[in-house]
Amino acid sequence: MAIEHGELPGLLDRLSEAFGPQDWWPAETAFEVLVGAVLTQNAAWRNVEQAIARLRARDWLSATAIVNAPADALRECIRPSGYYNVKAQRLTAACETWLELGGEAGLQAMETGAAREALLAVKGLGPESVDDVLLYGFNRPVFVVDAYTRRIFSRVGVVPPDIGYEPLQSAFHAALPRDARRFNEAHALIVALGKDYCRPRSPHCEWCPLQPACAYGGAGVQRS
Ligand code: SF4
């Protein structure tokens, strides 16, 4: 199946008309985006917020503090985010790399591709986590692909269901202007649709703004 990236802008426009501006500009520091990107893997965001609040309460919301924190206390601190043993290791590894790269200022000075490569080298940081950091932490024009993106646009019929992260990201890079605000807004619209309409089972196709264009839901048939 060919990738129909030329249809992506029109589909995103439909979502924008239906849902309005999402205005997802997080107030956190770039470092907090990194911490959130590690802790959010397989976790609900409200649990991640609890873990971040616990780090803040101990004054551990910095790379130096996390690297120097006793391992058992760090694990306990981030327990609300789940999988806290492995996440503590990943968080420490990410903080070590963060410090090696010169922290926020060092990464800010790096070219986007080089920063992406350096962060991808951290064990446990995958492309979605790294691109979260680059887009939301450093305002770089990097499209964040998630499970919602793959599900929605493969159901609509513009990309194959088994498309990999990089080809799907490239489709959005080819279809949209390389603009961080635009990518941020598009990602927020996709999350809004994926969370409330295009669910894994029993999607609400009948109310979906993409329904007229969707190969999966366009026939008006509800599938489970
Ligand atoms: S019409 Fe249904 S399957 Fe298609 S994008 Fe909307 S919710 Fe998903």
TrEMBL record:
GO terms for molecular function: 4 iron, 4 sulfur cluster binding; catalytic activity; metal ion binding. Pfam families: HhH-GPD (PF00730). It comes from the Bacteria. Coiled coil: none annotated. The keyword Metal-binding applies. Residues 39-196 form the HhH-GPD domain. One of its GO terms (biological process) is base-excision repair. SMART domains: ENDO3c. Keywords: 4Fe-4S, Iron, Iron-sulfur, Metal-binding. InterPro entries: DNA_glycosylase, HhH-GPD_domain, HhH_base_excis_C. This is DNA-3-methyladenine glycosylase III. It comes from Spiribacter vilamensis. The lineage of its organism: Bacteria, Pseudomonadati, Pseudomonadota, Gammaproteobacteria, Chromatiales.
